[in-house]
Amino acid sequence: MRECLEKSIEQFAPPQILYRDIIKRALFEDIDHGDITTTLVVPFEKKGVAQIVAKEEGVIAGLFIIKELFKQVDREVKVLPLLKEGSLFQPKDVLVQLEGRLSSILLGERVALNFIQRLCGIATLTKKAVEKIKDLPARLVCTRKTTPGLRILEKYAVRVGGGLNHRFNLSDGILIKDNHIAACGSITDAVKMAKAFAPHTLKIEIEVSDLKGANEAVEAGADAILLDNMDFPTLKQAVKMVKNKNPQVLLEASGGVTLENIRDFALTGVDIISSGALTHSYKSIDLSLKVHL
């Protein structure tokens, strides 16, 4: 059983078919009709070595992106990762070495850095957040607040940092939010309708913002309750109330989660902490590519 629970980070990487076209579009955006500067000043067959070097501390994520990107640019460019996915790196550490035509390496330089700097940023922020609550049972998850078109990669970077994923898309789970409730009429009616027509394999989660809503949700038979934008005293009260009524209900907290207060969220007794900031308010890690002849 223990062996089944121990997964390598690479096992969570998305299948190539899901990110191949993302890279293709990014390259087309940058290259269009070619790299006029490199064409004019760098001999086509001139070969050399380039290294992606860290300028600050971070967690490495997205090495497979670099491999696929240079595969699309020039299959003869060798991509040699010098650190393992998920490793912590320091300033001046070499993350990846590239060997081959310098014209090809320069062609893919900016796009490669654009991808990996962002994924490392997400993994690094997630790692810091997870460290804050590692001794508590609450789990940290990301949300659908991702860069359009890059969700599969950004959610993967959260996994690299030690976090988990919430829904990938709207068909991935039932989450009844405030606007659904407003359109339906009440929490009770919304849960009732969902239970009547939902596949038996899916849990029903409902978002509430006060104690009255939390009470109505648990009474209506929700499987999970999202406690949104509550202050900590109210959050603790909601957790106690719901767990007393039905200990099996999964409780999720969201709204304003930061590195400074994530431990306070975890101490309320919630099962899940969801944070959109992991994928919309991260800082890209500063990396550079340096050519060596």
3D architecture notes:
With 293 residues, the protein is α/β, with parallel strands linked by helices. It is built from twelve helices and 13 strands. The protein has two domains: 2-128 and 282-292, Alpha-Beta Complex (Aldehyde Oxidoreductase, domain 3); 131-280, Alpha-Beta Barrel (TIM Barrel). α2 (16-31) packs across α4 and α2 (16-31) crosses α5 (102-132).
List keywords for this structure.
TIM Barrel; 293 residues; four-stranded antiparallel sheet; Aldehyde Oxidoreductase, domain 3; alpha/beta; seven-stranded parallel sheet; elongated
Layout of helices and strands:
Blueprint: H1 2-5, H2 16-31, H3 36-41, E1 47-54, E2 58-59, H4 63-73, E3 78-81, E4 88-89, E5 94-101, H5 102-132, E6 139-142, H6 151-160, E7 164-165, E8 174-176, H7 178-184, H8 187-197, E9 204-208, H9 211-220, E10 224-228, H10 232-245, E11 250-254, H11 262-266, E12 272-274, H12 277-280, E13 287-292
Parallel strand pairs: 6-7, 6-12, 8-9, 9-10, 10-11, 11-12
Antiparallel strand pairs: 1-5, 1-13, 2-4, 3-5
Helix pairs in contact: 2-4, 2-5, 4-5, 5-6, 8-9, 9-10
CATH superfamily of the largest domain: Aldolase class I
- Determine the strand fraction and express it as a percent band: 15-25%
Q: Under the CATH scheme, which class of the largest domain?
A: Alpha Beta
Biggest β-sheet: strands ordered side by side in the sheet: 7-6-12-11-10-9-8
Number of helices: 12
- Give the domain tally: 2
Backbone CA Rg: 23 Å
